[in-house]
Amino acid sequence: MEKDDPQELESKFNSKTKAIILNTPHNPLGKVYNKEELQVIADLCIKYDTLCISDEVYEWLVYSGNKHLKIATFPGMWERTITIGSAGKTFSVTGWKLGWSIGPNHLIKHLQTVQQNTIYTCATPLQEALAQAFWIDIKRMDDPECYFNSLPKELEVKRDRIVHLLESVGLKPIVPDGGYFIIADVSLLDPDLSDMKNNEPYDYKFVKWMTKHKKLSAIPVSAFCNSETKSQFEKFVRFCFIKKDSTLDAAEEIIKAWSVQKS
To answer: Domain Aminotransferase class I/classII large, which positions (predicted)?
Structure first.
């Protein structure tokens, strides 16, 4: 995965910069920031007295050759970092809508005020279940059956399968280092999108067309972009591979048949 440009990143900082939002492993790219890259971000946060809101909800879903590092553990960063976690991503219970924030008291107390005046509380049985799940897996961290170890191994196989599938039909996926999404340039498939709305980006029209005509769903990547970068990702869509093998089998049949029709 391509590295960030430190000079370009620093150009976004100034004396008025209040906070930076970091996402690693990244959604939708699947990038896992390494120690060198995180150090650049940490140095800038310290230099410009900036808070770091670190979204690490996919922290356990990291694949071979990569390692997740918490920027809050870097020198000078604990006191200026809020780390975000997710039960949905950690234990595959996305419907629970339960997460957590970790940080120093002088920052967390303000989040408590926000929570009190927005969602107010989370269901007590779900909080208890999450605590028990953590307790069980923390005690068996070195065990292959620990969910923190078994899930990424299971998903890495699925990731590699999808990468091979997309490449086999001529598409160009960006292989993720972590997370359970993969994005790919789908322009080679070149469907007739004339029945879609003309005022929408290409990827929006593409995924709507694909859902309607191929019964295969994905997410338009430009939905994650600001107006300046949207055009760079219009030909990319995001596929999700945390699926049953039967679902991936069906997707493979659709994509391969589609490719044969184009050839």
So the answer is: 5-250
CATH number for domain 147-260, candidates 3.90.1150.10, 3.40.50.150, 1.10.3720.10, 2.60.40.1080? 3.90.1150.10
CATH code 3.40.640.10 region(s) in the chain: 6-139
The predicted-structure confidence for 224-260, as pLDDT tens digits, reads as follows 999 889 999 999 999 999 999 999 999 999 999 988 8
Reported pTM: 0.92
Please choose, from the candidates 247, 65, 33, the residue with its C-alpha nearest in 3D space to the C-alpha of residue 152. Answer: 65
Token code pair at residue 139: 């005690």
User: In angstroms, rounded to a whole number, what is the distance separating the alpha carbons of residues 115 and 23?
Assistant: 21
75 cis-preceded (ω within 30 degrees of 0): no
CB 185 within 8 A of CB 174: no
CATH class of the domain comprising 6-139: alpha beta
* Helix H or strand E segment including 134: helix 124-138
Q: Which pairs from 156-159 meet CB under 8 Å and 24+ separation?
A: 156/63, 156/64, 158/241, 158/242, 158/243, 158/245, 158/248, 159/63, 159/241
